[in-house]
Amino acid sequence: MAGTNVTALFRSSTAHSPSYFTLNRAGAGAAGEIIDFCIPCNPYFPTPEMFDELGSRLREILTYYPSSADTITAELCQVLGLNPQTVAMGNGSTELITWIDHLLVHESLAVPVPTFGRWTDQPMETGKRVDMLLLPEAHGFGLDPESFVRFIRTRGSRAAVICNPNNPDGGFLPKHQVLALLDALQDLDLVVVDESFLEFADAEPEPSVAAEAVLRTNVIVLRSLGKNFGLHGVRFGYLVSNPGLAGKVRAALPKWNLNSFAETVVFMLRGHRQEYADSIQRSRRDREEMTWWLSQLPGLTVYPSQGNFVYVRLPEGADGTVLRDRLLSEQGVLVRDCANKVGSSSRFLRLVVRPQHDVARLISALEQVLYGQLPHTPGPAVMLARACQQPASAHDFGAAQAQSRPPNAVLPGAMARGYTSGTAAVDRLVSPA
Fold it and tell me: So what's the pLDDT on residue 410?
């Protein structure tokens, strides 16, 4: 599949993976479609019918100017039940992060890491001090709000941000803890709660603090539309805050910063609310199933996630950068290794949640590249392939035949021949009888 010219593209960027288009132009998809576990968007929305409608309107979408941002924002607020005076829409959440930094972050920003890279990179690019609290791996990268407040006081930070759920690990703070954090930091210049992936959370019924943000003088809630709607190519996101903060950002945004694709999608939403709700439910179900299947791979640590991605630590001796390149070049599977994320390392991957048939290909690829020759027992890939064929009995594995694996595994030979996952039930599943 992809050759060295393709995998070399990852080393030309220190911050992000190469785009899907760049990989395709370099020949990554020459022998078959890339299965993308890198870009975290909703695979079920828009529906095929919605894509057909967008396709039929392509000429007018590309030909004509969009309406004003105020017009598009007013429609979005009608659909979401928001006050337009408390909302600013941007050409993706990254544009809003840029303007938040320029307008509202004056001296320093405190942020837990690892997290979304623009929250560390953007303020550093404009000469701000970024105070980074390292989330402890020993505690599953969970954020302790009280520790974060103490860190902010010690460092003297004037602004703070948290991502909820956090990217890349999917860690989640319940609403009452977020509100307590906002109470404790009400003296700061600014506190941002980035809820870009919150639509995928199901830990509690109403986890967003957007309604509370509009009543506070220093709080902004950031939301993404591209991730939720499966349309990263249509750059659109929005923030919610009190009218003063929202108005300050709106006034700074360029005219016509929203394109005609964004306008068309926003005006389609009213008639497709149920399809959207169904797509979120399917993504949540897929996350649960994918987490379970990944947990069956020996030595792989899978962290609980409330996003539409799963953060995993590779077995001892495995390198995520090498694994990423081989998965793409040999298996046509694109993953996000986290070597270039502050607070993470090449021991970690962020894997986007996808439907079961795609997960079957991921599990098979990981087995082949990570472990090489597995013990002669049913591997998770075999069982998942059978589950895809017989979804009613996904966990009724029965007896399965051994599946051969190539000997050139990423892991050292001793690990490939006789490894332990640290979980007795998993060890029994994959070890010889």
Answer: 74
Please, which residues have CB within 8 angstroms of residue 39's CB and are 6 or more apart in sequence? 20, 232, 352
Token readout for 353 is: 């949640």
C-alpha pair distances (Å), 387 with each of 360, 372, 426: 9, 23, 18
* CA dist 48 → 51, 53, 55 (Å): 5, 9, 10
Cα separation of 111 and 123, whole Å?
A: 11
Assign residue 70 a region (left: φ > 0; alpha: ψ between -120 and 50; beta: otherwise): alpha
HSE (CB half, 13 Å, CA atoms) of 417?
Answer: 3
Query: Shortest CA distance to 336 belongs to which of 15, 56, 85?
Result: 15
3-state SS, residue 401: coil
Do 309 and 351 form a contact (C-beta atoms < 8 A)?
A: yes
Per-residue pLDDT reduced to its tens digit, 175-209: 999 999 999 999 999 999 999 999 999 999 999 99
CA–CA gap between residue 272 and residue 279 (Å, rounded): 11
Q: Residue 356 in contact with residue 384, Cβ under 8 Å?
A: yes
In 309-409, alpha helices (H): 320-331, 356-366, 380-389
The most distant pair of C-alpha atoms in the chain lies apart, rounded to whole Å, by 68
Neighbours of 202 (CB within 10 A): 16
CA atoms within 13 A on the CB side of 100: 35
User: What is the spatial distance between Cα 80 and Cα 393, in angstroms, rounded to a whole number?
Assistant: 39
Q: Which of 138, 116, 424 is nearest to 303 (CA)?
A: 138
What is the per-residue pLDDT across 120-156, written as a single tens digit (0 to 9) for each? 999 999 999 999 999 999 999 999 999 999 999 999 9
Q: What is the DSSP string of 31-52?
A: TS--EEESS---TT-S-HHHHH
Compute the distance between CA of residue 242 and CA of residue 221 in angstroms, rounded to an integer.
10
Stretch (H or E) spanning 97 = helix 93-104
H or E element at residue 222: strand 219-224
Contact 17, 38 (CB under 8 A): yes
